[in-house]
UniProtKB/TrEMBL annotation:
One of its GO terms (biological process) is microtubule-based movement. GO terms for cellular component: cilium; microtubule. Residues 895-904 have a biased composition (Basic residues). The keyword Nucleotide-binding applies. Belongs to the TRAFAC class myosin-kinesin ATPase superfamily. Kinesin family. This is Kinesin-like protein. Residues 745-767, 811-940 are annotated as: Disordered. Keywords: ATP-binding, Cell projection, Cilium, Coiled coil, Cytoplasm, Cytoskeleton, Microtubule, Motor protein, Nucleotide-binding. Plus end-directed microtubule-dependent motor protein that regulates the length of motile cilia by mediating depolymerization of microtubules at ciliary tips. Residues 10-345 form the Kinesin motor domain.
């Protein structure tokens, strides 16, 4: 082994003054040692005798200067930092270093070197730093750390790490190197392992209580740490640096007087003192100014072990300890004197380097180790490369992920924006469409309400004309032609109806304007929607998101379709209700005819009026038809739809109490006011006759029973009229048969009656003639107003075309109002004209002389004509048009009652169902009035709430 570098260095001496302990304070000791500045200590002599003349001029205090001093305020860290820390790097790099604690017993040596758990001493701190320092250079250098821990107790060496080894011997080789034979040298790889071994060794150390120290160390403890350092790469010539660190806690010198030791303790003390004396002698010798003379290390095992530390190749630090108590003045002074001498001790510090020249035989091992090192380094590089590659890949993926996320976020944001815009557009469109439907609904309601008011007005016109006619008749009878009073007070209802018509007219225009505006806005919204849809592929790149938006649009289209279906359904309902209204009207007319025929038949039977065979046959045929219908349920069914409709529609029930008629009698037995088709006064009277089993033959005459009808004396008239009816029936039947022969085809259903052309030609242009009825049915059947099965477009939701069709259709299918009536005026019949008519009728035999000719004439011209039939019995049909119903039975349209009875005049209520020839004499033809009251039908279906859930 050689030593390189370094040089001669003096011993570093530090002094630590511990605080006064409790015992010392109790004994009244006073502090006599003080630290002055960083490296001076002042020791006062507490035994100064002022009477001693010889010492009178001597100073009481002694000053000592050391490399560093510590007083009671210094902690373990301060002492370690100042004395030991700087030695650690030197030890690692191959230098020897020794730190030993010197001082009297109880001065604090063990406290400084070993310390406690909460305040570890120099040993723990130095070992900890040693491993930390090696870690710094572990990449390039390989270290091997071994430690041994021994004590010299009573001049015997014990292995504290292996106490079982017993007493160990010191041996010295030829080079003078001192070793302990059999001392265990334990390898340590970490600080923890070193600490565990140190604690174990301390537990094995001999400590006994003395008077001076409760835990007095009775031995010198030597901890040796050897660090071998070499480069990791081996060569054929390897440099190995070996540094040794000795950490020594000496036993304290003690005076028997102070320790009061006896026996074993006294023997221990003697050994301690002898070894310390040998140490002192060595220090004295080493510190001589003239250079060291012979140094007797062999006097004690302690000095032999410290040979290198004191005078050899070692950086040595001595930490002297003293008590500040005046009681320990002598011990403290001695320690200070020894420490002060030690300052002059010089050592030659060199690095311990061993050059290992390997034998050729070891080359194989070296090569193997080198290869292993290469592999290790490669693996390490690979690991680092892999780790860095993985890190790079992870980084790239993270960046890509972030980019994708950002892109996705941007895309999603675009989609959400577009989606919001589309949703807003959809909602706007739906709102507009709903508004459009409401407007259309309103238009329909306005149309219905207009019709209703027009009817009220037209009926009043009829009523007014009738009242005026009656007055004219009265005045004619009284020959007061000059005093005709045309002033008939118009009822409140009619006045209201006229006002309502004006309001409705304005309302219609306003509604139309709103409709146009809404349509325009809807077109704008649709344009916007179209543009937004075009933006979908541009703004949304994600296919799935595009699909989501497209599906959303599809949902919107379905919502529109749904709305269109609702609108179509409403229109259909509206149309059905209209048709029901018309059908019901004709059913009633037919029932009325049935009733008339029945009563006429009863009259014939009751009076034994001879009836022509043809008439009988016709009647039988009629009965058969009737029974057939009843058997088929047509009779009841014919009522049901309209009744159901009326009840369901929320309007007034046909029979007020919600019942439905089961027969013709039922139909006629309910209160008029609740009926859709109000019964005429005549029908009411007929009902009254049924109830009282009486017949009203004139306005004022009531016959209790048929058999007691004494006043009804004109049997001849009845016979005559009956003959006329029979003749009429025969004629009709002949015509029917002729027509059938001419026009019937095998596949056509046989009809009993067809109007001839000539009679049809006489019909009033607006009356409901058979041909018009056929056309009407055809129109209905062919769906003049129909809805496609395909979803309607916006136009057939929104357009009022449908409503207009309904209006047109309604106007066509129902007997129209006279233009004059629509205008609210009634054509005045002048007295001259009235008289002329009267004369004309007189010439034609209407004045009670009814002939076959007259009857024939009447029958041929009365069909569909808005005029009065002047037959005695036929007066029943005086106020209506004779029309044809599908079974070919002549139906008489009764003059309908007014919608509002309250404005019916008293005179009007007196109208008889069977008027006398006298009464019929001057009667004018009344205008044709539709026999239904539109106002009685409330189309509540058009007011439904178009609740369309708009969700996406
Ligand atoms: N700097 C200090 N601060 C506080 N307490 C201290 C200090 N130094 C020593 N002491 C206390 O003084 C007592 C004696 O110390 P210590 O055992 O270390 O003395 P010693 O010199 O080792 O004695 P011995 O030679 O008998 O073993 C212990 O209780 C220790 O805790």
């Amino acid at each position: 082994m050689s030593t390189k570098g370094g040089g001669e260095q003096t011993l570093t001496v530090a002094l630590r003054i511990r605080p006064l302990n409790e015992d010392e304070i109790l004994q009244g000791a006073s502090p006599i040692a003080y630290k002055v500045e960083n490296n001076m200590v002042v020791l006062l002599d507490p035994t100064e005798d002022h009477d001693d003349i010889l010492r009178a001029n001597r100073s009481r205090e002694k000053q000592f200067v050391f490399d560093c001093t510590f007083d009671g305020s210094a902690n373990q860290e301060d002492v370690y930092e100042a004395t030991t820390k700087e030695l650690i790097p030197n030890v690692i790099t191959g230098y020897n270093a020794t730190v030993f604690a010197y001082g009297a017993t109880g001065a604090g040596k063990t406290h400084t070197m070993v310390g406690k758990d909460d305040s570890p001493g120099i040993m723990v701190r130095a070992l900890n730093d040693l491993f930390l320092e090696m870690e710094k250079t572990s990449e390039d250098m390989a270290y091997k750390v071994t430690m041994s821990y021994l004590e010299i107790y009573n001049e015997m060496i014990r292995d504290l790490l292996n106490p079982a080894a017993g007493i160990l011997d010191l041996r010295e080789n030829s080079k003078g190197d001192v070793t302990v034979a059999g001392l265990s040298e334990v390898s340590a790889r970490s600080t923890d392992e070193v600490m565990q071994m140190l604690l174990k060794g301390n537990r094995e150390r001999t400590q006994e209580p003395t008077a001076a120290n409760q835990a007095s160390s009775r031995s010198h403890a030597v901890l040796q740490v050897t660090v071998r350092q070499r480069h990791r790469v081996k060569n054929t010539l390897q440099e190995v640096r070996t540094g040794k660190l000795f950490l020594i806690d000496l036993a304290g010198s003690e005076r028997a007087a102070n320790t009061h030791n006896r026996g074993k303790r006294m023997v221990e003390g003697a050994h301690i003192n002898r070894s310390l004396l040998a140490l002192g002698n060595c220090i004295n010798a080493l510190s001589e100014k003239n250079g060291p003379r012979y140094i007797n290390y062999r006097d004690s095992k302690l000095t032999r072990l410290l040979k290198d530390a004191l005078g050899g190749n070692c950086k040595t630090v001595m930490i002297a300890h003293i008590s500040p108590a005046s009681l320990n003045f002598e011990e403290s002074r001695n320690t200070l004197v020894y420490a002060d001498r030690a300052k002059h001790i010089k050592t030659k510090v060199r690095r311990n380097v061993t050059d290992v020249a390997y034998h050729i035989a070891q080359y194989t091992n070296i090569i193997t180790e080198l290869r292993e090192e290469i592999l290790r380094l490669r693996d390490r590089l690979h690991e680092q490369g892999t780790a860095s590659r993985q890190h790079a890949v992870a980084n790239i993926q993270a960046v890509q992920s972030e980019v994708l996320m950002a892109k996705d976020t941007a895309n999603r944001s675009e989609m959400n924006k577009l989606r919001e815009q589309l949703l807003t557009c959809f909602k706007d469109q739906m709102e507009l469409r709903r508004s459009l439907m409401e407007v259309n609904n309103n238009t329909m309601e306005v149309s219905l309400e207009t019709n209703r008011n027009q009817l009220i007005i037209s009926e009043w016109d009829v009523e007014k004309a009738r009242i005026q006619q009656k007055r004219e008749n009265t005045q004619a009878t009284d020959n007061k032609f000059d005093e005709v009073d045309d002033d008939v007070t118009e009822p409140e209802d009619v006045r209201v109806a006229r006002e309502e018509l004006k309001v409705l007219h304005d309302e219609k225009h306003k509604t139309e304007k709103v409709r146009v505006t809404i349509k325009r806005e809807l077109e704008t919204a649709k344009e916007k929607h179209k543009k937004l849809e075009e933006l979908i592929p541009v703004k949304v790149s994600n296919i799935d998101q595009q699909e989501i938006i497209r599906q959303m649009c599809k949902v919107h289209e379905l919502e529109i379709e749904n709305l269109q279906n609702i609108a179509a359904s409403l229109m259909r309902d509206f149309e059905i209700k209209k048709k029901d209204m018309v059908i019901t009207r004709f059913r009633h007319h037919r029932n009325l005819c049935d009733e008339i025929i029945k009563q006429q038949r009863d009259l014939i039977d009751d009076n034994n009026v001879p009836c022509p065979k043809d008439l009988d046959e016709l009647y039988e045929l009629y009965k058969l038809e009737r029974q057939d219908k009843i058997l088929k349920g047509d009779e009841s069914n014919s009522q049901t739809p309209s009744l159901k409709f009326l009840t369901a529609s929320g309007a007034r029930s046909t029979f007020g109490d919600g019942r439905q008629p089961s027969s013709l009698t039922d139909l006629n037995s309910y209160d008029d006011d609740t009926k859709v088709f109000t019964r005429s006064a005549k029908l009411k009277q007929i009902e009254a006759q049924w109830k009282t089993n009486s017949y009203m033959v004139s306005d004022k005459q009531v016959i209790p029973s048929i058999k007691s009808r004494q006043s009804f004396d004109d049997k001849e008239t009845i016979v005559s009229n009956t003959r006329n009816i029979a003749a009429l029936a025969a004629k009709k039947r002949t015509r029917v048969q002729n027509t059938l022969l001419q026009t019937d085809k095998p596949d056509k259903p046989r009809t009993l009656y067809r109007p001839t052309n000539d009679s049809a030609s006489d019909f009033a242009p607006n009356a409901l003639t058979p041909s018009r009825l056929a056309k009407h049915n055809k129109d209905y059947g062919e769906g003049n107003f129909h809805f496609n099965s395909t979803p309607p477009s916006d136009d057939n939701i929104s357009s009022v075309t449908a409503v207009e069709k309904i209006s047109i259709h309604t106007d066509t299918s129902l007997p129209p109002l006279n233009e004059q009536q629509y205008k609210g005026g009634v054509r005045k019949i002048s007295q001259t004209e009235t008289e002329a008519r009267r004369r004309r009728r007189s010439q034609q035999g209407y004045e009670g002389n009814i002939s076959n000719q007259n009857m024939k004439k009447t029958s041929s011209k009365s069909i569909g004509k808005p005029r009065v039939s002047r037959t005695k019995l036929g007066d029943i049909s005086a106020s209506g048009n004779i029309t044809q119903i599908d079974e070919g039975i002549a139906e008489v349209k009764p003059r309908r009652e007014k919608p509002r009875r309250k404005y019916r005049s008293q005179n009007a209520s007196d109208s008889s169902s069977v008027s006398t020839p006298q009464q019929n004499k001057n009667r004018k033809a009344l205008p044709s009035i539709p026999s239904y009251r539109k106002g009685d039908i409330t189309i509540t279906g058009t007011g439904v709430n178009y609740g369309v859930n708009y969700r996406y």
